[in-house]
Design goal:
binds coenzyme A, 190 residues, 8 strands, 6 helices, single chain, 27% helix, Aminopeptidase, alpha+beta
């Protein structure tokens, strides 16, 4: 199925990805604050997080609505376990996927499953030939997600550090449209 827009809800089996709603602000704030020490090294927005920042995010006032399709990730108990998003900043034919997971819910495959689900969504969009994951060289957990899904390391380049854990070397990983159906990431969704 080819879509023109990412859907509002993505069913990923034991996880559900939903575009943020205005009443998600409190849950998002609690998740980020509980995870602050875990997120701060890698996510530039995680330091000094405020309820107002959470409200602005869920109201869609942060980022570029044309470029960013952000999702909150919920488990079967309706707990907010993280966030993931599709970002159009790589030209018309490629989309970047990003992710974070609540510190109390890491190492359960949630980032991998959410990123796999959004990679599938990206390839359902007309004209998208590749999905990429970018992370700082020091972020071994993020690298492990890209590897687990079968993305291919395509570039390493200097980059300005934006968060305190970053060393300023960006690793870029790519999934080509034709490689996706047989990939480890697609198998996670089967
Ligand atoms: C990176 C992050 C999203 C991973 O979330 P997660 O749900 O724990 O990841 P998964 O459970 O899907 O694990 C995927 C792989 O990463 C590995 N992994 C997860 N955390 C790891 C860690 N801290 N160190 C090393 N490997 C790690 C897992 O072992 C797994 O690999 P495997 O299947 O080969 O064993 C999470 O650690 C996080 O939120 N980090 C802070 C935010 C961030 O860095 N986001 C990415 C910015 S580019």
């Amino acid at each position: 199925m080819t879509r023109s827009e990412p859907p509002d809800v993505v069913d990923a089996g034991r996880l559900t990805l939903r575009r943020p709603r205005p009443d998600d602000g409190a849950a998002l704030y609690e998740a980020v604050v509980a995870s602050a020490d875990h997120l701060r090294p890698w996510m530039p927005w995680a330091g000094g997080y405020t309820p107002e920042m959470a409200e602005a995010f869920v109201a869609g006032r942060l980022g570029d609505p044309e470029a960013d399709a952000n999702y909150l990730v919920w488990d079967g108990d309706a707990a907010l376990v993280g966030g993931s998003g599709l970002h159009r900043r790589l030209g018309p034919a490629a989309i970047e996927v990003g992710y974070w997971v609540h510190v109390a819910h890491t190492r359960r495959g949630y980032a991998s499953l959410a990123a796999a689900a959004l990679t599938g969504v990206a390839f359902s969009l007309a004209g998208v030939d590749a999905v990429e994951i970018h992370h700082d060289e020091a972020n071994t957990a993020s690298r492990a997600v890209a590897q687990r899904l079968g993305f291919v390391h395509v570039a390493t380049r200097p980059d300005e550090p934006l968060a305190p854990g970053e060393v300023g070397v960006e690793w870029q990983w790519r999934m080509a449209r034709q490689a996706w159906p047989a990939s480890a990431g697609a198998r996670l969704l089967a």
